[in-house]
Structures are given as C-alpha cells and as structure tokens.
Amino acid sequence: MIATVPVVQTRDLVKRYETGGETVVALDHIDFSVAAGEFVSIVGPSGSGKTTLLNMLGLLDGPTEGEIRLEGEDVTDLSSRERTAARKRTIGFVFQHFFLLPTLTAVENVEVPRLFDDDPETTARAERLLERVGLGDRLRHKPSELSGGQKQRVAIARSLINEPRLLLADEPTGNLDRETGKQILEEFARIKREDDVAIVAVTHDPLVNEYTDRTVELVDGVTS
Amino acid sequence: MFEWFDRRFPTQLVARRNLSRTKVRSALACLGIVIGVIAIASLGMFGAALRTQATQNLGEIGNQVVISPDRSEGVESLTGRDVRTIERAADGQTVLPVKSNVSTITVGRQQSRVQLYGMERPAQTYAARVGTIPDPLRSGALVGSSLAEDLDIGVGSTIEVDGNTYRVRAVLEEGDAFNPVSPDSAVILPERAIPESGYDNVIVVAETGEAANATAQAVRDSLNDREPRVTVFELSSITDQISQFFTVLNQFLIGIGSISLLVAGVSILNVMLMSTVERREEIGVMRAVGYQKRQILKIMLAEAILLGVVGGIAGALISLGAGMIIHQVLLDNALLAFRPEVLVYLPVALGFGVATSAISGLYPAWKAANERPVEALRN
Ligand SMILES: Nc1ncnc2c1ncn2[C@@H]1O[C@H](COP(=O)(O)OP(=O)(O)OP(=O)(O)O)[C@@H](O)[C@H]1O
Ligand SMILES: [Mg+2]
Question: How far is A88 from chain B (nearest CA, A)?
C-alpha cells in the first residue's frame, strides 16, 4: 500500500515575533501533520501558540524557519498571491466569532468565497450545504436573525463551498453553549467522515476529545 | 429586480449591501456628490445660457466687414476707385457700397429726421420682416423696424423724402447692435436717390468668418498701404472677444462648482475610511477564504463609485431641471436647455462626480486590500 501524502505537514516550523526589541518564540520547531479524514484538536494554555500554528497551516502567515507542505507541495515560500489562491483551492476556515457578512443572507454568505467565479451552480450548492448543516429553512435569513449555533453552521457551510481538503477551526465552539458546541463538533465529525477532509480545530473544550482522532498539546510553542 | 445584475456583477451586490448597511451615512456622502454635480452642471448651463443671451443680441454678423473713410486722417468719403480696390481685395465676396445722408421724411402728416442709406443691393445683407426686398433695389424704399413702429409705416405706405415719394417695399428685420450700418431707425433707398458722389461705408459680406478676416486684411493692405485712408471694422473680432470672454467665464463658474465637489470627495474619503475600519474583520475573512487583494480593492472602489454614480445621476437630473429654469428666466424658453452645448454639462458634471468618488475611494480601498488577514482576524 502506498503511504498517503498528508494533507498538511510542517517540518521544524519556527515562528518568532520581534516586538520592541524583544523576541517571542511563538512556535519552536514544530513537526506536525494531518492526513485526509483525520480530525485533530490542538489544546494548550493561552499564549502557547495555537492560533499561530493554525495561521501557518492556513497559509495566512509565513513561518520564520522550517517548511510547510500542502498536499505534498512545498508552500513555504509562495508569494502572497499564490498563497491566497492555494487557500481558496484547498483550505476552509471556521472562526470563533463566525465573521459572517451582516448584509448578506445565509445563502449569500455561503457563496461568498465563490462570488467572483461566475459559476451558476454556486447557489444550488450553497443551498445544499445549508440543508446539510440543518439550515434548509433559514436560507434567506440575515446573520442578525440567526442564533449563535446557526451562524456557526452557516460559517461551516461557507468553509465547505470550495470543497476544501483541509478545514481549520479556531475555537469554533468558544462562543457557543455546551449543547450547541456539541452539535457543531458532531457536524465536523460528519464532514470528516463523509468528505474525507482533514480537520484541525483549536479548542479549550474538553468535549472535543469525544469526536477527535488525536489531540496535540502545545505548551510555549512546543508540542508534547 | 437586481437578481440578474447581482449575478453578473457580484462586486456591486456586495457594494450595494454594504452601503445600505449605513444608510444615513451613505446618503449624506451621496448628497455631497449631488450638490457638487448640481453646482458644476448648473453653473455650466448658466454660462451657456448667458452666452446665448449675449450672442442672440449680436446676431450672425461674424462674416461681415465694414469699411469706412478714416475721418481722423481727413478722408470724408470713399470714391468709386476705392470701391473698385475693395472689390479686387474682396476677391469674389459680395461688396455693398453705401451712401448715407440725414434728411427729413414725411409720412402722412408726420415728419421726422432720419438716417438715409443709399444701396444698390440691400437684399445681400438685410432681411425683410414684412414684404420683400427687390434685388437690386431700383425703386421704392425699405424701412427699419423701429422707425416703422414709431411712424406706423407698413408695406405699401408712401413716404416722401426730399420732395420725392417712395413706396415702402419692406420693413426690415432688427439689425445687429454692433453694426455701424444699422438699419433699425433708417430708411434705405436706391443708391441714386442720394445725391452725394462719394460713399460713406462699404460692407463686405463674406461667405465665412475666415474669408471676412482675409478680406479685411487685404483691404488694409491695399488701401492703407501708403497712408491710412480707411478704417476696417470686422464684426467677427467682436464676436471672437465675446466668445472668449464667455469661455473664461464658464471655466471660472465650473471651477467654483468643482470646489463643492472637492468637499464631497473628502466626505467620501471619510466614509470609506470609517467603513474599512469597521469592516476590518470581514475584509480579513474575505482575504482568508481566497479573495485576492485586487478583488478587495474592486469591492471597496465599487462602493465609492456607486456613491458617485447614484449621487451623480440624481445631481444631473436635478441640474436638468435647474437648467430649464435658468433658460426660462434668461431666454424665456425652458426648452433651450435641451441644446447639445447645454446638455453636455450634464455628462461632464456626472463624470466629475464619479471620478471624484473613485479617487476618494482609492486610498481606503488600497488600505483595505493591503491589510494582512492575520492582523485583521486577531481578537
Ligand atoms: N503579531 C504578533 N506579534 C507579536 N507577538 C505575537 C503576535 N501574534 C502572536 N504573538 C505572540 O505569540 C504567542 C502565541 O500567540 P497565539 O495567539 O498563537 O496564542 P494562542 O495559543 O492562540 O492563545 P489563546 O488561547 O489565548 O488564543 C503569544 O505569546 C503572543 O503574544
Ligand atoms: Mg488563539
């Protein structure tokens, strides 16, 4: 059997921030990888570098040292333009604060990543995704007319519109009550199973372990 | 109603929704553009109406040259030889020698001292309001419009001049205010009715303004060669000056209008900057999900331009109304606002309005596009 290429993989990843003459080592030689269909959670105390790692994996920021591979391809030194294109192609994002566009309806929000692609199928696909996350009856609602859990489900649908290989979520349940958070995590587990997507979620939520395949703990920028 | 449009132009969908989010603020920014566009368009139209009003009084005289004896040099009249010299210089243009005299005319029981002109072919330069002007004029008389009114003369009336009676053949159209041979209060008789031997004026009616210019120069060259003998009056030089004056006036008016547009531009800049700050996270998300910088730039710029287009169109429509009012007041005809040289100020002002908004939107859009998504999304 051929060893499958990890969806995302880091080698000796270092991220240092220089602020006011002081150097903060946010990530200290991290080796990390996720395979397709794997759900990994990252836990750790505040300031341990979880968000920083997620930003590296999501190509939102570049590392100081080390290497990142996305589906086997070295993406460490891509230009900002190429990174943006790679994000669009392969990565979906879910945020703690949902970040929906308040002026757009649920369907339109899901369509946002493809708004400029001039693809007549997008709307139908967005509607299907919303139905799948249980919002088939809220298609034309504005974010202000939705509950927190519903907003996060719209955000999940949005993250799936481009059929990503990798789904990154920074505290996706952080703004939700326990029960709603559980539903969101179940949603992730289902996506992982059905779409064979790699999922990395940062969380403080102890519940998350029930759904994940593996948990990585970060302390002061070092995995343990 | 926008569905199809939104699908084709998603930029403007997002832009429109974003503007509607802060309706009052957008409306105020728009209002600035409306006012600026109205200022430019209606001041421009006002200038055009003033120009029309002025040139209406001047009439179509740009192609005439009037040659008179230079009295300051002691020349009292032009001789037959002078006329022939002018005819040569005029090179095929119509040359009309004019004799003049002041005499008493009698109409019925009224008497009046009036200006008399003796001309062979007045039909070449004057038009009849009533009746027809025989060409050449061998018998009968033509009467200027104000004189005809004062003495109640009509076509067919008889007037007596120096013991001879003439039948009135035509009442003339009002002449041009600047014309030295103004017919309004005069009587025009056949040339031989005036006894003097010399001519007091020679009118050259050229085909075009340029031909008039050339003729004027040629006459100066041939008659004033050795010593000044004639004065040459080109009506086109006056119309040129007037038209230059109005061009400057118009530029000045539009300049004033532009100041208000500048203020509008600053207000759009302000609105857009506020909006980029407020929407920092949204823009960060869009960048994260794969929007390139230039797409963000397009969206933000579309917002600014949309403000300009909406404000500009409203401003242009209001200006059209203002233009009609201006033309009604100045020229007694609101429909004159629909002439191309007036209407042109609408697209010009609209263009200025849209360009102002686009330029004002440029910096905020650039700023939004270049914000790093990691910074924007940190909470
Ligand atoms: N842009 C930056 N400039 C300077 N230092 C930074 C920057 N971003 C992060 N850091 C530092 O890097 C370290 C890791 O930050 P990070 O945001 O990854 O922590 P975290 O694990 O996500 O914490 P939390 O659980 O509170 O979200 C922190 O010490 C933080 O102060
Ligand atoms: Mg964090």
Answer: 4
- Identify which ligand lies nearest to the alpha carbon of A219: 1
Which residues have any ligand 1 atom within 6 Å of their CB? A 17, 19, 24, 26, 44, 46-52
Rounded to the nearest angstrom, the minimum Cα separation between B347 and chain A is 30
pLDDT per residue rounded down to tens, chain B (379 residues): 566 667 667 777 778 877 887 888 889 989 999 999 999 999 999 999 988 887 776 655 667 888 999 988 888 889 989 999 999 988 888 899 999 889 999 988 888 999 999 999 988 888 889 999 998 899 899 999 999 998 888 898 899 988 889 999 999 988 765 677 788 889 999 988 888 888 999 988 888 777 888 888 898 888 888 888 898 888 777 777 888 888 898 889 888 888 988 998 998 899 889 989 988 998 999 999 999 999 999 989 998 999 999 999 999 999 999 999 999 999 999 999 999 989 999 999 999 999 999 999 999 999 999 999 998 888 6
Distance from CA of residue B104 to its chain's centroid? 41
In this prediction, the answer to ipTM > 0.90 reads yes
In this structure, the residue with its CA closest to atom 16 of ligand 1 is A49
Interatomic CA distance for residues A170 and B39, integer angstroms: 53
Selecting from A60, A101, A115 the residue whose C-beta is nearest the C-beta of B288 gives A60
CA–CA distance, B262 with A191 (Å, rounded to integer): 54
Sorted by where each starts, the structural domains of chain A and their CATH numbers stand as 8-99+165-223 (3.40.50.300)
Query: How many Cα atoms are found within 13 Å in the side-chain-facing hemisphere of B327?
Result: 22
DSSP at B113: E
Question: CB of B237 within 8 A of CB of B66?
Answer: no
